[in-house]
Structures are given as structure tokens and as C-alpha cells.
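From the shared-data thread, chain only:
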Amino acid sequence: MTLLHLFDLDGTLMYGSAAPVEISRQLGLAAEIAELERSFSAREIGPHEFSVAVHRLWAELTPAHVRAAFDGSPWLTGIREVWQEIRERGDYCAVISLSPSFFVELLLEWGAHAAHGSVFPEVPFTRPVDSAGILTPEGKVTVADQLCERFGVSRADCVAYGDSVTDAILFEAVSVSVAVNAPPSLAERATHVYVGRDLREAYQLVRMARSGVAAS
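Structure, as C-alpha cells:
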């Protein structure tokens, strides 16, 4: 059976942080992004309002800032190794994130088969954000279905990795899910729970369960 592994980015592949936070730090805007993150977490604003706000906040953003934020982010260890093993097993791996596409797509360099984020204009910005391109939690499921069609698998063949309430809808849509450094509200919805900083260990939970099914 071929599997499609679907990874969230913020708080999942990235430990204790998020792409907008790391980008804003490069611009000296830590306090401003902290307030926006608080409002988003409290559901005072949604994905579209958040994206419009950060687009405005990042008026001086350059590709160099984006690269520095990516390279300096607190990534889990073992991401490249896990994705290499997934490829070697004939499975697929993709990233689906609400964060800006120009950041998420850099993970293609590490071996992801696909990477989808909220569609932002190219950096530096000369155009506004198109609301139609902003991902929502429900939109993650839509992207997952598109990837299933692309790779010839079904939702039953998907493994979702996530850390927050924005991943809950995707967890409910697929057969296997891994809560990574997640609060109890998400962990209780997952088939596996991982706490730590090494993606290889989270991935191993799925491998062990898969081996058990194969052996039974």
C-alpha cells in the first residue's frame, strides 16, 4: 500500500515557532507578529485577515530576509532523512500549511514531493494578497484531495502530521494522524501522539503501526 504523508509546517516541522514569526524577526517586527499570532490563536481574526495583515507588515521584505528566516528557523531534526526514506519506500510526502507559499515551497529543496501554502505575491511585494489563494483549515482537506488524485491514492492512504486546531479537520478526513507537540484538544483526535524534536521518531510511530498491520 502506497502512503501519502501530509505535514503541517508551523509548530509541526518547526518547533515552537511559525514561518510568519521567523520572517518578522528578520524585519525586527517580533512584537507586531506576536500580537497578530495572539489574535489568530484567539480566533479574533481568520486566515484571510491574518494574511492581509502580515502582507502589510512585511512591506520591506526581500528574498534575502526570507532565506535567512528559513535557514535560521528551529526545524525538527531528521526532516530530510524522513523524506528520503519515504521516497525510497515508494511513498509520497507533501507539506500543506497556512503560511505563505514563498516560504513553504522552500521545503521542496529538502525532498518534499509537493508544498502548498497560502498564495502570496512574489517578494518583494508589488501586488496585494488575493483572498482566493489564502488557505484555511478546510482548504487543507481540499489540497489533500488534490494530492491524492495526483499521486493515485485515497484519503485512507494518507497520514497527517499536525500540531494545532487548524489541523483538526484534516485529521478527521484521513485514516492516520500524528499529533506533534500538540495540545490535548488535538492529541485526543490523533491516532498517534509524539512529543519531541526529531521527526524520525514521529515517523517511526507510523512505521511501527504499519509493520504491525502487515504482520497480522
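The chain has ten helices and six strands.
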